[in-house]
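Ticket 4471: requesting a sanity check on a complex prediction with glutamic acid. Repro inputs:
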Amino acid sequence: MSLEIIIPSQRVQQIKPSPTLSINAKAKALKASGADILNFSVGEPDFDTPKHILEAGKAAIDAVFTRYTAVPGILELREAIAKRFSQERGWQYDPDQIQVSCGGKHGLYNMIQALFNPGDEVLIPTPYWVSYPPMVQLAGATPVPVPLAEKNDFDLDPAILDQLITDKTRGIILNSPSNPTGSIFSAGTLEAIGEMALKKGWAVITDDVYDTIVYEKGPIPHILDVDPKLKEQTIVLNAVSKSFAMTGWRIGYSAGPKHIIKAMNKIQSQSTSNPSSIAQKAALAAISGPWDFSVAMTESFLPRRDYIIEELQTNPNITCVTPRGAFYVFPNFSAYYGKSFNGKPINNSVEMSDYLLDEALLATVPGAAFGADEFIRFSFAASMDAIKEGMKRLKEALNSLS
Ligand code: GLU
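Returned structure tokens:
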């Protein structure tokens, strides 16, 4: 037993480890020990990184491209990112308005540290991705959940947002398509948020990591399309992780006002120095195109989504909004809370998720991790066979509750 003479800071004591990552680790360990686990927990494409990207990574090693790079990332990569934004969305950014980070998550961490002070309040549409509130707390600021209603397809109601604004509100974190709901904010909602942000001078963080995984045609509404003036107070976050099945490479990118990117670079220079030189070369190959892999991957997710939704709809006790993007379904299981298995009650999403793991060998993420206890998240970035077997097991497990 170790003597705990030194203890972790109060800052870190307020937060918990990432639930998505810890459940994934638990599912993988159980699988490694021989259990027939179906893993619908962590959000990660079940595809391999495309070959031309792997080759670019190998070429970087062969060329001994292994030294420190510029703090915000290599210029060619920032230029390629700027080109992507310009060609796809018509947003003009100079390379010094772009930072490459060690994954989208780290870009988010950098920007939250760069933007918020202790005491600031940051609005977070809820259900939210698990890491937003802890990152805001680590900056000493206060996360303020803005409830999104399932009956409203998890779109944001500006009237509710209005009620939560105080004189300490300094920013908002948008995520559309959303993890965990797969919902997309409507143009009208973004317009209302944009107007408030302009009036109040908020920082707007827009986490767009699922922007290529969309199940409908045409570009989805974006806060930057509301008013060009918003570009001065918006930071766009993205990553190659989801679009190119590159989760382990850890490359994310952010674009925003020059002075904010400069502040984020200061943090990066004092923490990670730069993202991996090799992974940056691979990301350069990814972002420079072709993007057909990304399109084909999204097309392959669609029948999986449809299957899982159809299966869930056969159960009158479950409601589920059809995701329009990302690769998660977020069904409402609350009708089962209060039931029990072999005398053991299930009263919340954590107990339901534990039950599904123990009795059906299904790894899922409880809605509580996303600030929404009525729900359970299933990633459908899994094979169709796994999804079919998973839905069968789910049905049996739910039928066993009384
Ligand atoms: N964003 C993914 C998820 O929600 C990856 C894991 C994580 O970083 O939370 O499952």
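Notes from triage: The chain has 13 helices and 14 strands. Leaving this open until the requester confirms.
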